[in-house]
Design brief:
The complex is a heterotrimer of chains A (493), B (98) and C (169). With 98 residues, chain B is mostly helical. Chain B is 80% helix and 0% strand. The N and C termini of chain C lie far apart (55 Å). The chains are: A mainly alpha (493), B mainly alpha (98), C mainly alpha (169).
Chain lengths: 493, 98, 169
Amino acid sequence: MQLVPMFLVVPMAAAILIILAARKVPRLADALANLATLALLVMAVSLMGKDGVYWVKGLAPRGGTPIGVNLVLDKSSILMLATVGLIAFMVTLYSIQYIGRRASKAHFYSLFLVMIAGVNGVALTGDLLSLYVFIEMASLASYALVAFGDRQAELEASFRYLIVGSVGSLFVLVALAITYSLAGSLNMAQVAMTFGTSLKPIHLVAAGLFVAGFGLKSAFFPFHMWLVDASRAASAPVAAALSGVVIEVVGIFAMARVLFNAIGMTGSLHTLLMILGTISILVGALMALREDDIKRALAYNSVSEVGFIVLALGIGTRPAIAAALVYIVTHAIYKTLLFLNAGAMEYATGSRDLTKLGGLKHRMPVTGATSVIGALSVSAIPPFGGFWARFFIIVAAVQAERYGYAAWAVAGSILTLASFARFQKRVCHDPVGETCAAAKEVPVLMQVSMIGLAVLCIAAGLLWLPQVQDGFFMPAAKIIQEGITYGSGILGM
Amino acid sequence: MVYGLCFGLFLVGLYGVLVKRSLLKIILGLAIMEAAAILFIVMLGYNAGGGGDPIARELALVAFLAAGAVVATAATLARRLRARHGSYDIEDLNRFKE
Amino acid sequence: MAGLMLVLIAVAIAAAIAALEVRNLFTSFVAAAVGGLALIVALFVMRAPGVAVLPIIVAGALVWMLLKAGARSDLKTTSAGRGDLAGQVVGLALVVILLVLSVGVFSEMPKLGDAPFASIADSPAAAYGSASFLAVLFSYRILDALGVAALIVGAILAWLAIRAAGERS
């Protein structure tokens, strides 16, 4: 149990160490960063299946009233921590050879690690104020990471992202303040117990503001535009981290925690999420179809995927929430892979324009092969992980008798399939264009990272196995779905 | 009623962020929103009698520091953008898009 | 008390609108300063001087920084709207919707000066008694203090990174 604060301490310590000691020594920065992310991954895996609440400074609740701040390790937060650790490690591995001569590795890694620390904090925290602090920490680091590299597009995208993200944070802050005034406490467990099941209009205002704020953070409709510009401008590892980790944990998971466990869901909130989710699915998929720039297309696809997750949360049955969690994990894996692929293509050819990338597969076998796997996953072709995730959500929708939503979800899937089929055709089957003639395969470590992710995409196909479902995802979903009874559990520990 | 006015200030800031062209004014809008939110929090914590609620104060302080860090970063970005392209106008920046 | 607060916030709103709309940068800053002053007075009225001191310092620092950037001559071109009309419409619609939704809801909030949760006997605030908020921050809620410290570290890193990238190119 004492290991829990390490999820925060390790990345922060590494960040500080890197910036102090490794500014002039890029190799040292590489080593430290990768050690840190590997450590996070290993810790997360070793803690799977354990439960517990960690009270900072040992300040356990007195007579049922929490007076300190807590970090909650349960089946759902460990899932997030493991995903974050995995993606972080893959990204830092890739970055060893991707970050070029122009940029300072030390600055990059340390910002990245601060962001990861913030994301871990969001996943673990049981207190609303801490949640806000960690959200800001992760967001601020991510604004700077998008700007990294100083090209005009990056600076501008970073500025817009900063503004949009800060507005989102402010909505969360106001919602938090209202919640505090209604509950007398910032501890999520206690809020849950105080609110009970009767929610007055003002509770719903707070909930609505949370949805708006977290919506901006997760990039679902109508708050999605920033992700497209930010993903396009940012470097591949950063864009991967944004779509793969940040919007999921800082956006969706935090929203789920707050709405389900602290405030408690009501019918109207369910409907709101289902509607926004479905619109996101369709808008994201349609816009992705029209894009020629790979990274923008991937970003629109992320919007669509987030839509699926939000729809599932809206449906709210336990299978739906389990499906949402599966989706978060698999999406993180294949989206990161696809962004790293895009980065590899850009690294080798200098272009992200789809019309110029004809026949790249012949020149870059590893990138090509892994991108095929990634595309198959995202298009939800069985037996890859992406298929199961989407399938489960549609099944859950049907089980809950939400046939209309299920139909729209299927439509969205087909559109996504179309956009990636187009993409694959260009890269694999078209004749080699002149842009690609000179391309060679990317450096080894980048390949390792992509291959690792591709293997996981395939392995994710096993996530439908009942042992996995019952062992990991159903219990995690149970925690979220049980909503405000989470409170008594925490305070009892 | 007072809270409503506070929210009004928040919305003024939001209007600034959404509608204004100059980067500086957008940052100003953001700062106004943050000030409104912090004021709201402090008002919540205000006790007519005693010293005021510690958690609310702390929340206000934290929010302020976070907001300050963000605004400072935004200002740094704006400065870099101007240094590169000579303008704070977001429309001019759009024209340079790659 | 409530009346005084109303006046102060009204002043702040007027100053904010002025600061945003006015074209001349200097006047804009003056308006912003007036608004800021109103807010700081409000904070003092609420007996939160600790919270008020920092804004004063930081506001000063920001103004200095921006002026140093030679921004004095800019903003001749500031006009009211952005190019994308659709975005503008959506933005204004959002603002109006929020305004409409909030009418009436805020009447449900407790009156100024009534600690809203005094009646919630088990609240941590009750447990902390009359400890000052800094004491609470550094003892009970030390994770928040550490988190904020980490955030500031992050901000410094961000500044360093942006500056270093700028010097490089």
